[in-house]
Amino acid sequence: MPPSNSSVPLLRKGAPGGISAANDSVPAAVYAHVNVSAFVWNIHWQCSVAAQGSSSSCKEKMGERLVELVNESDAEIVTVIELSNNMSDPVNLVALGLDGWTHVDGPCATEGRGDALALAFAPGWTVQKSGGGCLRHDCDTRAFAVARVTPPSPIQGCPSLCVVGLHAPHTEITAGKSIVSSICEDAVAACTIVMGDWNFPVEAVGPFWSQLVDGEAPTLATPNERTCCFPEEHHFGVFDHVVTNIANASEAGHQIYPYQLLEENPVQEHKPVWAALHYLRAISSQRLRQEPNENMNPRFLLLVLYSSIRFSILWNLKNYTDGLIVRHVCTGTTDADAMDASSKISLISPTGPHVEFQSGATCFLSHCAESSAARPGLSRLVQRDD
């Protein structure tokens, strides 16, 4: 999926290298990168129950289109809101056609009000524990689902992730935080991804985050574009985002799809959203030794190559000078290889200290004074500009 727009600036800025995760148990490692792609769609309840003019076939056709879009986008995590059998019973996404996926229910039933949300993970993701429920217990209640999962590619500092599918209330979140903490345990601290309909732009997600997630503040939230709602002449909202508190996160791209199946009159449908987050990937030292070609970062290989060549040059230079570097100061020399007094000459010996030469007279390097003429290129080789 090609990237579209740039990501929203960080909501939390820290020291270089980011924060340390509370559940960090990854051994000493070399880091590459891994992308996690997410798909979010609030189909809205009118389509599911054929209300307010939505067609009787809206729910079935939206379910089919959902499977098509997920497969087309290669998403790994899916949050679908209000595609339900009734107001509080989410449609099972595996039964819908996401074969091999793992489904997590997010039912919310309260007196006089209900809401439904489904969370699903692609093959290769392991769900360790899951749950869901309501974010309030009044007429503004909305649903959520949560899972502690192991991704197919490990992320730096996060042996497991806390993933939450969210349909935020229009007021504030007053329930659900204890469920998220009990499901995710230490992963909630700095290994959390929350995705869904926040009912507010990115700039306002902070309070909702702290009301639900007992961990670090977000490091990244994306996208921040209009996604609500059909028909647009009656609705407006910058609502659907993927938010994370994992250190060093960046956006790898996103796409806002157009409204789907307008012939079914899907009242208040949101635009589907696909977003990919870019993380540092943890590769254990043992695996690196076993699979060097698969896991080595090209930059790391270039660094190793550069260091090897540099060491070889300097080692040969050391041998050339018999391991002895001395300073020879000349006064009034006219040697073509002598350098101006303002020049600074330095050499790093593989087995010795960093030797710098600076004098008030013209100077050059030599093994000894009498042999300097025999080594006219040495001073030029080690000269540098400040």
Which terms summarize this structure?
19 strands, alpha+beta, 6-stranded mixed beta sheet, 386 residues
How would you portray this structure in words?
This protein is of the alpha+beta class. It is built from nine helices and 19 strands. The strands form five sheets. The protein has a six-stranded mixed sheet. β5 (102-110) and β6 (113-121) form a beta hairpin. It starts with 28 loop residues before the first strand and ends with a strand.
Strand order of the largest sheet: 5-6-2-1-14-13
In percent, how helical is the residue content?
10-25%
Secondary-structure-derived class = alpha+beta
N/C terminus separation: 46 Å
Mean pLDDT across all residues, rounded? Answer: 78
Strand % is: 25-35%
Number of strand elements: 19
What ranges have pLDDT less than 50 throughout 5 or more consecutive residues? Answer: 1-29, 285-295, 318-386
Secondary structure tally, helices: 9
Shape: globular
Largest sheet: 6 strands, mixed
**Rg estimate, integer Å:** 30 Å
Q: Give the ordered list of helices and strands.
A: EHHEEEHEEEEEHEHEEEEHHHEEEEHE
